[in-house]
Structure formats: structure tokens, C-alpha cells
Amino acid sequence: MDVPDQTARSELDRALALDIVRVTEATAVAAARWRGRGDEAAADEAAATTMYRAIARLPIEGVVVVGEGEESESPILYIGETLGAASETDVKVDLAVDPIEGTTLCAKALPNSMSVFAVAERGHFLKVPAIYMDKVAIGPGYPDGLINLNVGPTENLKAFADAKGVPVNELSVCILDRPRHGQLIEEVRNAGAALRLIGDGDIAGVIHVSDPVETGIDMYMGTGGAPEGVLAAAALACMGGQMQGRLIASNAEQQARARASGITNLDRTYAIADMVSGDLSFAATGITNGSLLGGVRFTKEAILTQSVVMRASTHTIRWIKTTHADVSKFD
Questions:
Q1: Is the CB of residue 239 less than 8 Å from the CB of residue 155?
Q2: CB of 292 within 8 A of CB of 207?
Q3: Percentage of the chain surpassing pLDDT 90?
Q4: Which of 52, 183, 185, 272 has the fewest CB atoms inside 10 Å of its own CB, making it the most exposed?
Q5: Which of 209, 26, 9, 25 has the alpha carbon at shortest distance from 121?
Q6: Where are the domains of the chain?
Q7: Predicted pLDDT at 88
Q8: For the chain, which ranges sit under pLDDT 70?
């Protein structure tokens, strides 16, 4: 990956200011209007359209690296699409987007649905296809290399418990509640750890390990979307923590997608630095109430949002509660 010069970095600083959280705020509000209505397609369309329009106004030339799928699968925010209102002097960046992390959660008004947007220097996001990724993640403050996808869940739990100075039965592990995780769930329980099973939202699941005191989650395990894995890695790069991921291509079509993305070694294990690098910023706004972010609230006078915006190079984390008195800007 290219190392940006100081001029490029100063331009990136300007492009990665609070503008990105305004994108997730607008997107979360659009999605929240469909919260609890049971219409996933309508919520997703409203969120994607709003995010597309908001990014298109930014003074950047951005290429979608993590998006809503291939160009043949999505009319907007597709992988490879160029967005932004850039002039010749504006900065070139890569974009990772998820208008609704947890579409089902939004449609059912369940916790931890949020809008997510990350921006990095050009060439600093791992390009992955829309396939699965096996993941394991923990929060900050532990020796590098403590977790390892090449060993079993029991070994990872024991290593983490020893490093934390607690027995395994004091650990809590977040796992997506899916039939494919039946054996994993059984092994984690047999090892003695508690489980937090979630229906959707594995970006939020990974982010939760960054603050186990607040969320009650020590470790994330299991398979979820590969694009979501890159976004989760971006968040942990800012907040601190460890994560490993390995792509899973279970059929010829998925293997072809991986090759088209430039992935030639499907056995490779990726650390955070392999998935995201350089200076990047990450923003998320709650759509529904969650462990880290409150959801959008509508009142007669204003719209209230809760967001987090982070930067990897400085490990700056800003928690933002915003009262939007001018509700017309969301029309």
C-alpha cells in the first residue's frame, strides 16, 4: 500500500472531519422512519438512497470498496462506484458503507441496528466479495497475537481468560444465532463461557468487545459477512482491540467472486492491519437503541440522534448526541 505524503494527509484530515457523521445521521433518520414496520426492503432502500445522496455532496472523490454488492446487484453504493463532489484539488479516498447494519433489527425495532460509514486513504481497505468471513475479536489491552483462528474456540477462551486473569466462566462471548454455529455454540458452552446470541448485526457484535464493561461482551466468534468484517476491523483500528478474519468461499461462484476481488489465498488469516491501514475515520449512528448507541428519537420540535465518530491515526473517539432542530433538512 502507498504511504501518503503530508499534503495528502492534510487533505484527508479535512475530508474526514465531522462531515462523515452527518452522513450516518441522515441515513439513520431515513431508516428510523421505517423502524418497526416490518418492511426490510423499504427501510434498506430509504437508507441507501439517503446515504448515496449525502456522500455525493462530500468534497471527495471516493470509490466504494465495501458496499451493497456488485454493480449487477445494486443500483447505488455498489463496489467500484465513484462518489463525491470532488474538484481537482480534493482528496481521493476509499469508502466502506453499510446504510443499515441489521436491516431485520430495524424492521422489527430490535436493538443494535445502526448506520455505518468509514473512509480511508486510497488503497487502504481490503477488497472483499460478498461472502462469509470467519471472525474472532477481543478488546484492547492484551498482548498481540493472543487470539488465533487457527486454534479452536476452547483454546482461544483459555488464552484470553489467562491474559485477563479470570476463569473462563467469567467470560461472555457474542455469536450470531445461526444454525451454522451450532457446534461453535456447544463448544463455547462446554468450555464454561456465557453466550450473548444476536439475531443480526455482527459489526455491532464485534465493536462491543472494545468496551466489555459497558456491553458485557468479552469476545466475538463466528462467521458473518466479509464486508461487515472489514467495517468492524475499521472500528477496532480506531477503538483498539484485536481481530482475525478468514474468508469462506463454499462454492465455485464464491471462489470466482474472491478471485475477482484479487483474493488468491482463501486460507489466509487477516489481522486488522491486513484489512484496514493508514489514516481512516469511522462513523456510526444508532437507528434502534443498543448497548453503545441510542436510536433515533422523533419529537415535535426536533430529531435526536446518537453517534460515534473515530479516527485511527489518533485513536480519537467522539460520542455525539445531536438535537436537530431543523428537521426539514431530513426531508
A1: no
A2: yes
A3: 76
A4: 183
A5: 9
A6: 6-125+280-330, 132-275
A7: 67
A8: 1-17, 88-90
